Amino acid sequence: MTDLASLLAERGVHVSLITTPACASRIQPIVQRSIESNLPLQFVELKFPSTEIGLPDGYENLDQLERSHFLTLYEALEQLREPLELHLKDHNIPPSCIISDGCNPWTTEIARIFCIPRLVFHGPSCLFALCDHITSKHKILHDVTDYSEQFVVPDMPLTLRFTKANAPNFFNAPGWEKIRDDAIEAERTADAIVLNTFEELEGQFIELYEKEMEKKVWTVGPLNLYNKDEYSKSLRGNKQGSEKQEIVLNWLDSHKPKSVLYVNFGSIARKNSSQLKELGFGLEATDKPFIWVLKEAEITPEVDRWLSEDFEKRVQQKGFICRGWVPQLAILSHPSVGGFMTHCGWNSILESISLGIPMITWPHFSDQFTNEKLVVDVLGLGVSLGTETVCWMPAEDDNTIWVHRDDIEKAVQKLMGEEEEAREMRRKAADMAEKAKIATDNGGSSYNNITGLIESVMQ
Questions:
Q1: Maximum distance among all alpha carbons in the chain?
Q2: 162-210: per-residue pLDDT in tens?
Q3: Domains in the chain: how many in total?
Q4: Number of Cβ atoms within 10 Å of the Cβ of 260
Q5: Ranges for the Glycosyltransferase N-terminal domain (predicted)?
Q6: Do 270 and 191 fall into the same domain?
């Protein structure tokens, strides 16, 4: 959403980016740099009611919480409606429209009060949005009772199989029914939909989705390609990014082009100590250089001892272990990186695609399983590790290993090797990266859609 706000401001539109204090601290350096560039971008903070809902002060993001608190966080978002309404009423000039994501269906009421258009911004792929809509329309998840039971998404140009557990939707769990119903209704009544994708990547699904929704779908991505400022790339999501960037990039500088595998599974999903060790052994067995990012929440005393006293010493010539956040976009942009083992979050996939990096896919939950099918089965840009198991945050005593070292080693060799299949994936990745660049350049499909979106609101 920050990238979209900055992009609209670069086109001369006056934009107010509505956020909360903890989120603001993460994106403040990027927004401040936009303001220093004299972009018409206003930064509006609304206090999030953390303490009122029983959370510690400043806890406003999923990656700060255990999964048991996720629903509480989502339910509290609606409490931002009144302060936003008051903020808008305090300004003499009403907004021309509101763009909000599926987590904030309460913005429907804001749009009604101010008689303005409301656009829904979908963060995931168009394929996911389409499958989510179709499964909801046909009430498939109501009919499937067993979470391990498979079903096929109907009305699609290809066969897509899921289980109820990894089905294409965000709010597929007991207790989330109202949030899901509100999100579906907000999407149905929106004036238009905005997607972070591009026509050359998901053209057939965009066309189907627009027909299904019976409204305009503006595809404006990949949004990360509009940001050509190297300093801002290092700051994405963390104001301390530049401090780590120099160390990581210096290590990458010492390796051959396209030789390093980057391993990162996003900010939310966690692995238990047994699975982390199994992953480490698999990476070690490949004899390929790698950067492996571990979340601070994953580094238990047991894992820390294993890393410090054993693993890091064995792989020090080829492996770089990062604890906590890293400047992902800067790493993927480095010429030494030739592969990305990813959780299949859509932002990560788009960054990889836009930079021509093929992937090893290891989805964990929600849209990630659908995104994997797009990358591997539709686009031919990656190798799947074959897991269909949903994995959020394992219990402390959970020692389950979902993906074994042999499978990890085989996938890395398949992606990073010199066989024809690996070379073909690299060719396809390079071709799609060029198409992404053309889409966002002046006159490209996404560039023109940004123009059309602005004109449709301002007319």
A1: 64
A2: 988 888 877 777 788 888 888 889 999 999 999 999 999 999 999 999 9
A3: 2
A4: 27
A5: 3-224
A6: no
